[in-house]
Design goal:
Elements: E1 18-23, E2 26-27, E3 29-31, E4 34-37, E5 40-41, H1 44-63, H2 71-81, E6 91-100, H3 101-108, E7 114-117, E8 126-134, H4 135-143, H5 152-165
Antiparallel strand pairs: 1-2, 1-6, 3-4, 4-5, 6-8, 7-8
């Protein structure tokens, strides 16, 4: 069963291959068998709605909002028009469990991502690590899943991240 969210602290030894562990730097927490984010149950729908509001917030100054649209309406407008540049105000931390070192290195060499990993796994063939970046950068890395200039194992993991994040970026 695929899970979108994980509590890095409580589920470190039972992480799915890819999972969102923080949104905006705020951790996803496991409580009573459910994942929570700032007092709201973390579901694809609830987090997508919050991210849409964030897209709207990123657009307020650009669009100047003369018609008094809500943040949700502005976020919808950004999604409809493909204006994901507003996603620079939002960050996601994703855990990747059991990824090949080449995948970690692809993220590590991309200075838009900030990584953390288990020190003892540095010399192993696979590793567990987290990568943090703006939602805009996650959208870009997912686009590399079909880019032949990356290794096949890297593209495979970029596609896994894409499948994980697709419900959060749905229009």
């Amino acid at each position: 069963m695929t899970r979108m969210f994980a509590d890095l602290r409580a589920e470190l030894d039972a992480l799915p291959e890819v999972a969102v562990v923080a949104v905006g730097g705020l951790p996803v927490l496991l409580r009573d068998g459910a994942h929570w984010l700032v007092g709201i149950e973390a579901t694809p729908e609830s987090v997508a709605e919050q991210l849409k509001l964030g897209l709207g917030l990123g657009a307020v100054l650009t669009y100047r909002n003369p018609k008094g649209k809500s943040l949700g309406e502005l976020g919808d407008m950004c999604l409809r028009q493909g204006h994901l540049w507003t996603a620079h105000v939002l960050s996601l931390t994703v855990a990747l469990d059991g990824a090949p070192l080449a995948v970690r290195n692809a993220f590590a060499f991309d200075r838009r991502f900030h990584l953390s990993w288990v020190e003892r796994e540095v010399a192993g063939e696979t590793c567990t690590f987290t990568a943090t970046a703006s939602l805009r950068e996650w959208h870009r890395i997912v686009g590399y899943a079909g880019d032949a200039s990356f290794r096949a194992d890297q593209r495979e993991w970029f596609a896994k991240v894409g499948a994980l994040l697709a419900p959060l970026l749905a229009q």
